[in-house]
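Try this one yourself first.
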């Protein structure tokens, strides 16, 4: 998935004061004057000749909606609109940086292959939506600030250090890899647990686990009560969670302002998710953590510092968690050199076949 938040700035200025009231008024007017026509149509639809075939068609559409034309676009855009415009921007502290965002769905009939389980290719469409939920929620604050970088001046132009970098802010997907462990049967429900895995000087890595629905509950929720927790009834004590995992995927994102790559730590810090770096801290070589040449916007006010102390989460813990995830991410990153393995058919080819 490639997405850009550059359009969000002008849209956000008119969405609530103009577009929302206009849409509401139009809907109310149309409903008032067309309600009888709608009622008549619904009566004919559900009771008129051919109603059985129509009802079957409605049921098929409802259970397969996620695989219909344009459904992917609706699902992805819904995540961005929901987290950036509708929901209140989070105030998460740095100890929440590696917490997962959980999304639930099911295997629709149109996703089933000839082996009678979820087709491998359909995992990637779900990944787009799950990653978008995490990025749009966790980094919404940073995205808003970087989309207005000309005024916030979070990232300066390397060629002109006294000027902010200019250009459209964008978030682009660089690569995805998915390892399959168990099949998911038709109509079975499952969850996607997506979280930050690690980052380096260019890429932010995310990991997504496809998990049996309802088999695992978090010990707590970061904000509102989204549902039951593991401590609610005690039946979800820690166990071998690998048995509940259907598949695991790693993805990497890059953040851009125009053609300039933004260090991932900048957007993480701008979202209030990096703790204070202690004086004298020296980042390990290749760690990707910020150096004096790559300033990070973090929590610098007294209230934020007090929250960090209360949570017991500091820079050392953040770096330790990042390094643990990077043990996986660095192997994934090496696949970037795989493009160089293309030989151009120097030794010949088998043939040219249609993809259908």
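Now uncover the answer:
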């Amino acid at each position: 998935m490639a997405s850009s938040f550059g359009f969000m700035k002008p849209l956000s200025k008119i969405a609530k004061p103009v577009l929302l009231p206009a849409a509401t008024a139009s809907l109310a007017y149309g409903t008032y004057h067309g309600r009888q026509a709608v009622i008549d149509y619904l009566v004919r639809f559900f009771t008129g000749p051919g109603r059985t075939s129509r009802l079957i068609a409605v049921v098929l559409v409802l259970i397969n909606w996620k695989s219909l034309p344009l459904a992917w676009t609706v699902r992805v855009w819904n995540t961005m609109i929901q987290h950036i415009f509708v929901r209140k921007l989070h105030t998460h502290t740095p100890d929440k940086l590696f917490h997962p965002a959980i999304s639930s769905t099911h295997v629709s009939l149109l996703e089933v292959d000839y082996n009678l389980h979820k087709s491998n290719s359909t995992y990637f469409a779900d990944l787009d939506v799950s990653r978008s939920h995490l990025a749009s929620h966790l980094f919404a604050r940073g995205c808003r600030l970087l989309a207005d970088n000309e005024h916030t001046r979070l990232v300066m132009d390397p060629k002109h250090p006294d000027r902010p970098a200019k250009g459209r802010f964008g978030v682009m997907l660089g690569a995805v890899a998915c390892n399959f462990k168990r099949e998911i049967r038709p109509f079975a429900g499952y969850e996607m647990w997506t979280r930050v895995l690690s980052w380096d000087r260019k890429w932010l890595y995310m990991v997504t686990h496809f998990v049996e629905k309802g088999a695992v509950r978090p010990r707590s929720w970061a904000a509102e009560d989204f549902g039951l927790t593991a401590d609610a009834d005690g039946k979800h004590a820690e166990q071998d969670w690998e048995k509940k995992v259907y598949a695991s995927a790693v993805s990497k994102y890059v953040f851009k302002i125009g053609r300039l790559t933004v260090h991932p730590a900048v957007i993480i810090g701008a979202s209030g998710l990096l703790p204070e770096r202690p004086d004298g801290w020296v980042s390990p070589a290749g760690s990707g953590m910020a150096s004096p040449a790559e300033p990070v916007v973090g929590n610098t006010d007294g209230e934020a510092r007090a929250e960090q102390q209360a949570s017991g989460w500091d820079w050392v813990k953040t770096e330790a968690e990042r390094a643990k995830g990077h043990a996986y991410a660095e192997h994934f990153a090496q696949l970037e050199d795989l493009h160089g393995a293309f030989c151009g058919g120097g030794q010949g080819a088998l043939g040219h076949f249609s993809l259908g």
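Discussion: Residues 10-16, 282-301 have pLDDT under 50 and may be disordered. The CA atoms of residues 155 and 161 lie 9 Å apart.
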